[in-house]
Amino acid sequence: MAYALRFGSPFERHLACGAVQRYPIGCIRIVGKSVPAGRRYSTAALDPLEDPIKVPSFRLIPREERFFDLFVEEAANVLDGARQLETMLRTYDNPDKAAKRIREIESKGDEISREIGRRLEQSFVTPFDREEIFALIGGLDDILDLVEQIADIFVLYSISSPTKTSVRQASIVVNCCEQIHLALANLRGFKDLDRYLHEIYRLEADGDKLARQAIAGLFEDGLKTIDVLKWKDIYSLLEDTVDKCEDVAQLIERIVVKHA
Question: How far apart are CA 46 and CA 92, in angstroms?
Fold first, then answer.
């Protein structure tokens, strides 16, 4: 489309402000008037006070900071679920109510994950690779799913009281989730996260050792077969939760190395 314009003209400055709308070939639209291409016009017609042109305002590049806020929000929700599980096992006065509360927390986590997914679909630029974001929110969701499953199993298996080992394992899960929350709260700069990640690795090693000892002890305590099976499931699920925390820590470490 040809424009009868000169550099430095009032119209050109007006165009730089986004106040010109393009129309079919041969015409341009200036403050409410169609002008054939090549025709000269008076710059007085460009006064925005007489007939201002409204141009929609939008952002081509989203605020990346909101993704980081959502990561922290989801990690805080996971931590809330882990703490609820630990409290449930320590008190064990109303496991049904505690399990219900954890299910509510898990549903909230699903909502946060969907919000992150919607923002990914609408965003041109993301803080790091989309595949890494999907893996991160998927890992956090997996942790919370396991926490919910553990709480439900205590109810479904009609466990009369938790063992000291299961309480210790739940405490390890909480400590891991605390470190994940701290790591994600400091992820924006992609640096100085080693202390959080290394602590998770240390906790996972302790949890793995504790789970092996607990499962081995089941076959030495003279328990009924059904009780052995129940507690083997519980110990294994708690250890799986700690392992999933380690997976998330390893993913965060890869993200940091790649984008630092």
Answer: 75
